[in-house]
Amino acid sequence: MSRQLSGPPSARSRSKKKGGRKKGKKGLKAAVTGDGAKGHSKAPSMASVASHASQATDKSHGTNSAMGSVLEEVKEEGKVVTMTPEPATPEPKKVEPKEEPKNAEPRKPVDPLDFFFSAPKAPQQTSEPVTATVNEALKYTVKNGKVVKMEAISGEVYVMRTSQATDSALRHSIKLQSQDGSEMKFDSFRTAFQEKGQGGVDVTIPFGQKQVTAVIFDAQMQTKRVPILGQMLWKFQEKNAFSLVQWLTNRETMKTKADTVFVLGLSGSVVRCSGKSGITNMATKQTEWNTHMATYDNNTKQLKWVEKLHGGQSGRQQAAVELKDPMQPCSVTATVTCTGNGVSLSGVRVVDMDGGKLNATYSYTVTCVIEP
Fold it and tell me: How far is 60 from 203, CA to CA, in rounded Å?
């Protein structure tokens, strides 16, 4: 592409002969001082202006960005190009730091361990071993050594931690089975649980708790499992009455020593009352009478015997009553409390579904009404 030159040929030859380099230096100096445009009557071509404008912009943008609008002249082949560079980008304002109050305490560096020790621990689920306790309650009526009325037995299962730690949620799988092979189902559960078929649940002991309780059943019990049977005899005279209670404990359901209390409730005008008890010696078949006597409460009109009995034992309670007026025959109530027993009255047993051996104990309280 041919370059377009302004001015007549004679002017070009004269500028070459008289030292165009010196005039170029003077022209560059005049551009900086503002006098570079004197003595020129015609403007350069558009192509030459665009070419030099891009070069001047690249040079001036980095070095003169804080000066605003600057006129820069560039001499090319004896001509001066005047251009205006692009406006410079303003620098961001500096944010001065705020002064701290004079009495303010110096800031302490943050220790990551402070967050570790101060943050509350989230409840975690663990699989630590648990123990189970089955508590049952039963009331029935006996006459002449036979069960004549039995109410439904109710039971509860207490699932407890083996350790004292309560900083985790404990989850465990247990199942209820009866001794005759039939499965038993939970009636209700007093905590969050998930059923796993008939009689099986995932027990969850919540964070911060030691144990949970489940109502397991209300079912009929077989009469062969009752812990005690008995019969009662009365003999009346004019102003006296005599009673005799004979009883027998069940060795199949009373595996451990049981606290037993016999209570005779009297009616009518009682002057005084006394009683004694004895245990039958299985070897000699003789009754060995206890040295302590029964206690009588005149306010409640109750005669009370306190015994500790084993399964398979038999014995008797006797009472003599002095009356003002004749009275009707009364019944004796035997309350048997067996703790830490090996079996339950209903025959239920707690099974560990997680594959381990579950330490389960069985306790019950039985109220047996022996009628004459």
Answer: 80
